[in-house]
Amino acid sequence: MKARVNGIELHYEISGSGPWLTQSHSLGSDASMWRAQLAALEPHFSVLRYDTRGHGGSDAPEGEYSLAGLAGDVLGLLDALGIERTHFCGLSMGGMIGQQLALQTPRRLGRLVLASTASRTPAQAGPLWAERIRIAREQGMAAHVEATLARWFTAPYRAAHPDVAAAIGALIRATPVAGYCGCGAAIAALDLHDQLAALRAPTLVIVGAEDPGTPPAMAREIAAAIPGARLEVLAQASHLCNIEQAAAFNRLLLDFLLEA
Questions:
Q1: What is the residue-wise DSSP string for the chain?
Q2: Distance, CA of 234 to CA of 247 (rounded, Å)
Q3: Domains of the chain by start residue, with CATH
Q4: Neighbour tally for 8: CB within 10 Å
Q5: What pTM, to 2 d.p., does this model score?
Q6: Contact 24/90 with Cβ under 8 angstroms?
Q7: CA 178 from centre of chain
Q8: Minimal CA–CA distance to 195: which of 166, 164, 227, 219?
Q9: Which parts of the chain have pLDDT scores under 50?
Q10: How many angstroms separate the first and last alpha carbons of the chain?
């Protein structure tokens, strides 16, 4: 399904029944990244999964995007669907969007789950993002597949699950260059950490113990900055811990979201 939001078409899917839960995916992915969570969530929640601007079935306009704009897309989608309040679960870029949403419109969010994410991009990482954007522009997204998979999954998992690695690799390859570069610019400008003390949403922070991109130390900083936040570190997992350790991730997610 699609909705017209902020001048573009956003693709979304709804399943399950119960209170609303919105899920936001990583850079270079799409809503299908959450398939391993659906069977656990659908008996308890109306699950809204959407493709971020520049990804999947959503439009991919040229130009630099901003986190405020990406959060505005979510709010526009909620408005279009008549959803007044939702829990929110975001991974990586999705977690950045979740932080922005919680700061921007706290009344619209219930519980907040931030997985494999960051609250600021260090100045020294600026050249890294500029290089990733350059490679995408000059060589296409296929040039990012192998290096990204190496960051997103542990080597033993990739060896044992080549089908999963191939499926995620196909998502990376299919990401529009304009979308990757637009969202990459938003990530490069990420600077929310000093505002996190203002968050009041009950928050769960999840990270893979072997995540090189958003490591446990980064997750600990986020959890320490948000009043009352809880931190969980998943063993034998890298960046896409929701896939690599799906059963453990789902238990944490359900326990937190169903907490009285």
A1: -EEEETTEEEEEEEEE-SSEEEEE--TT--GGGGHHHHHHHTTT-EEEEE--TTSTTS---SS---HHHHHHHHHHHHHHHT---EEEEEETHHHHHHHHHHHH-GGGEEEEEEES--SB--GGGHHHHHHHHHHHHHH-GGGGHHHHHHHHS-HHHHHH-HHHHHHHHHHHHHS-HHHHHHHHHHHHT-B-GGGGGG--S-EEEEEETT-SSS-HHHHHHHHHHSTT-EEEEETT--S-HHHHTHHHHHHHHHHHHT--
A2: 11
A3: 2-257 (3.40.50.1820)
A4: 16
A5: 0.98
A6: yes
A7: 18
A8: 227
A9: none
A10: 33
CA-CA-CA-CA torsion sign (114, 70, 127, 226): negative
Residues 106-150: tens digit of each pLDDT: 999 999 999 999 999 998 888 999 999 999 999 999 999 999 999
Return the amino acid letter for 43.
P
Query: 2-5 and 8-16 as β-strands: parallel, antiparallel, unpaired?
Result: antiparallel
Task: Show the tokens assigned to 217.
Answer: 């130390």
Residue 8's identity, in one-letter code, is I
